[in-house]
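debug: dumping io for the single-chain case to check the tokenizer round-trip. Nothing else runs in this session.
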Amino acid sequence: MNDFTAEGLGLAIREHRQAQSPSMTQDELAKRAEYGKGGAVSVSRIERGLISPGAHRLAAIALALQLTPEQLKQDAKDRTRSLARQRGQRPVKLRDQVAETRRRHAEITEKVAQRTKITQEHGEAFNLVHDAARDEFFLRFVELAESINGAPEPDGPGEEETESTDEVPTAIRVGAMSFGIANAIRSAAAGGAAGVAAGGAAAYGAFTAAAMFGTASTGTAISTLSGVAATNATLALLGGGTLAAGGSGMAGGILLLTGMVAAPAAALAAAGFYVLRKRRNKKEEERLRTEVEAADAALDQSQQGFDAMVDVLHRATATMEYVSVHGTHALEKWRASLPPKSRDWVSLGHEGQERYKEFLTVAGCLLAVSSINVSALLTAKPDTLREMDKAIDETLRYADKTIKSIV
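debug: decoded output
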């Protein structure tokens, strides 16, 4: 766990940026740190202590400021200690105590509002490209695959693979999901309930449910292959979730916002009555200060989980966008090369058969990314958070590399 707060790091970055000769703008820092479009907004949020950059981003920012990451971290620690001392020095007069508590209350309220805004922005961006990838790639692939008669049963994960380690590798997890999707397609082609005839999100929900909760040839439930980053509760993720028919997406649902700001919001609500009073006695001031400090502590405790969530949503959005653009284009080329209906497996030829298998893998990767349990990041303890972050990073890296190697 870091020895500095997001606020301390933000102050250190802002001071070093402004100390450059000539003074560097936030947009310039974003470009030098290799942020993409809208990077200045990210830098602004970092400097205000709303979000913290990951290790890679922090190193890039340090380099842009002509510092080492260790130097920047040390300055962040110094600023954090300085802020703590300042806040520990309470004014003597009650009037001044009231003014200071009001200021902190307003500051924390704004931070909660900004966190909610950031979450909504990233959530909406993810949901938009996810739905495009679902409709333009996943469901179109399913429709094409259902029209192919005699597709062989795919190879499922072997029992020795699933039992050789407590933490199932991402490649096996994705393979299991692809296996489940293929079996659902075979079932639908044979007249099963799942299929694009169900329509839109309902069809997607049916196929992904089959992939997540189906059974491999070994008898191993595919749902057990989802590991730390994607649990059996995926279909209920965030009050509906991407995988449920008509769900609001990996980042959607009120549970995400509630999990992120529940503790500070409750503390601020409890304090609100006293803040509104023009005058209050010493006892009321002590109570208000305690509530405000509790809200501040809750924000600090959830900062790392919040930062991890923002990073995951950003990376998952980029992966989904790649599928929705390049995956859709590759799928359309494959469709144009297919023989007319009705098609059988042999008529596809070796190249067409291999493309079918590759698109199954892309669909499995899409499902693996969609089912990352983002909400769990916000409430995880530091040790668990590091474990989850590692597993999620592996999933995102594998999915991104695999998808780009295929399409």
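debug: round-trip ok. The CA atoms of residues 230 and 373 lie 5 Å apart.
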